[in-house]
Amino acid sequence: MYKRIAYFGLMTRFHVRHWVRRAAYALRKPFYAVFSWVYILFAAVDFFVVRSAKNFRREWKYLRAEMHSASAHLHKAFKKSTATWFSVLFHYIVKAFQKHRRFFRAAFNTVLPVLMAVVLVLEIHQWSEFTYALKVIYGGETIGYISNESVYLQARNLAVEKLSVGMDEAERADLLETPKYELSLVSVNKLVDTTILSDNLIQASDANITNACGVFIDGEFLCSVKNENDARSVFNAILDRQENVPSGATVGFVQSVDYVQGLYPDNSNSMWDAEKLAQKLDTVKEPAKYYIAQPGDSFSRIAAIHGLTVSELKALNPELGDTILVGARMLVAKEVEYVTPKVTVLEVRTEEVDYKTETTTNAKLFSGDRRVIQPGEKGVDQVTISVTTVNGQIYDWEEIDRVTIKQPITEKVEVGTAKAGTAGYYGGTFSAKGFIWPCPTARMISQYFGNKGHKGLDITTSGALGKPIVAAASGVVEIAGSTGNSYGQQVLINHGNGVKTRYAHCVYGSIRVRVGQQVTAGQQIASIGSTGNSTGPHLHFEVIVNGVVTNPLKYVSR
Prior knowledge:
Layout: H1 2-14, H2 16-26, H3 30-80, H4 82-99, H5 101-128, E1 130-138, E2 141-146, H6 149-163, H7 169-173, E3 180-187, H8 194-204, E4 209-217, E5 220-225, H9 228-240, E6 250-253, E7 257-265, H10 274-281, E8 284-286, E9 289-292, H11 299-305, H12 310-316, E10 329-333, E11 336-337, E12 341-353, E13 357-366, E14 370-374, E15 379-390, E16 393-406, E17 411-418, E18 444-447, E19 457-460, E20 468-470, E21 475-482, E22 489-496, E23 499-506, E24 518-519, E25 524-527, E26 539-545, E27 548-550
Helix pairs in contact: 1-3, 2-3, 3-4, 6-8, 9-10, 11-12
């Protein structure tokens, strides 16, 4: 493969001058210019790369042959004398550098940049593990390296908290000296955190210290105990006293309780035994606070004084109602315990999920009418909740998991847009049950429901013959015409939910609907007539609920 490349390069060199002339000519023709520059580029690569590689290979071949010959002579010289061997070796080395100067120069120019690049990478890696830091000097001794001053301030506060149990503010202020800082370049792994620096500060102080377990409640130092198990047993005993704990529940504290191993002052103020710790936890950390109402006081004024909202203040004093009497004793802050037990239990519940409603318009429905095309159904979710109680009262809850058991079904509804007065549609006032008066231009009742066993309302007016009859509500037509009984020409509409309405004694040929047709409230379905068993033009209107006739005036109003 290499020989082919070298041959191709050799042939190219013979034609470089030719290609340059071609390129100069082609520059006049933009279409051929690109191809000519490609030829020139290839010639340059061949001159600077291929030829150099070929020379390097030829020199290496000669050098390797000479090295083979020299090694034979060195072997013979070594057998004769060690001193002779060294002189012969030196002679061959000098001769090799003199004869193959170009080869060694090329090798040096190639290896040196690579070597320098490796050194650079190693240096960058080495220095990346170093950083500038503050050296903290306390009492003339280095106690640690920190990334910034805030680490020292936090460590100092923690050390003071441990050392100052039982001290007043003046003693706390002079407890630790002011340190000195120096900027230093150190390894990253030499940086210390707040806890280690705090221990180093305590160790550098004049306090009598020892290794112990610190008890922290909500991050605040309470005391130290020499044995961590003793401290834990005190808190566990408080949890064990909880009664009526449900099966599977976990018991803990509202506050966070931490046990931190480290250096602590060995004195009676801060170093406690288990008995003293138990006695302290049985006391109240902060007693309840009360306020005596003064003339002119209000809930808002008292709440503002004590940093409360009005609702919080009323919740603390539910017995007061909405008035404040002068001299009333009001609770403004509950007592605070060191630790408050809590009980957490997982509850699995099912919750209904409301369905969505998709609404479309229908120009055939009367304005204000609403037709359910697809009833909606609520979905069901199974919800796992973590419920936390304190003293039997719900303190907090959190939803842990939710799984859909049944997907909700979307309700699809059509809403009418036809205006009152549109041909075949009439307006009307809907009753509480969603029905309108069935005769827009006839309001007189000639016979009421129940009169001598009458099954509906007889509605008429002066010149009633031919007056319009409309559907009292949306529904599906079940009867449209005569069924051979006393009703004559009639329409029966099924409104769903077991409710139907009947319109009887219609004018022959006036029925405008057919069986199975969907009608809407206010849509004209027939005209008032006197067919069947009738003594004059009127509408016999019935309301049937679950197969039983009922008083229509419970569903419609004039």
